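pls design
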């Protein structure tokens, strides 16, 4: 049927903000300079090469503490519950189910993702990062008579 795009599946990464640039392109509206949004029209139409974000980064509050997530190419880094927590790293190319943390095997990737996390974070007094409480060490059992 003319004007119809064939059904397809894409693994092109994007985020909600990309819908703004996509809607602007569809409507012919101009976008402001310095925006983070990239149009998904090449993905939707199959015409042209879609632009890629160098990385996608977000923070969110869940379960009483802040979390951070970074997607950079094949790598996904997670910082869970505390700002001082070690980074969990998954290789999405070889482990799309995120079953194996490769952080200890890939310190080079951890270092790169840590640098991006620091650069990408912008503090905001209205949305402060909240650490989960430190776990208390388990008490050492005492034997009677000692």
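designed seq:
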């Amino acid at each position: 049927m003319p004007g119809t795009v064939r059904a397809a599946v894409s693994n092109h990464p994007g985020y909600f903000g990309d819908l703004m640039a996509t809607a602007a392109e569809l409507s012919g509206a101009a976008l402001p300079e310095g925006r983070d949004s990239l149009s998904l029209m090449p993905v939707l139409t199959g015409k042209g090469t879609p632009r890629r974000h160098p990385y996608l980064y977000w923070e969110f509050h869940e379960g009483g503490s802040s979390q951070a997530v970074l997607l950079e190419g094949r790598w996904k880094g997670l910082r869970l519950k505390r700002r001082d927590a070690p980074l969990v790293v998954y290789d999405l190319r070889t482990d799309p189910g995120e079953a194996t943390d490769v952080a200890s095997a890939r310190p080079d990737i951890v270092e790169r993702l840590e640098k991006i996390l620091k650069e990408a974070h912008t503090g905001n007094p209205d949305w402060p990062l909240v650490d989960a409480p430190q776990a208390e060490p388990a008490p050492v059992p005492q034997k009677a008579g000692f």
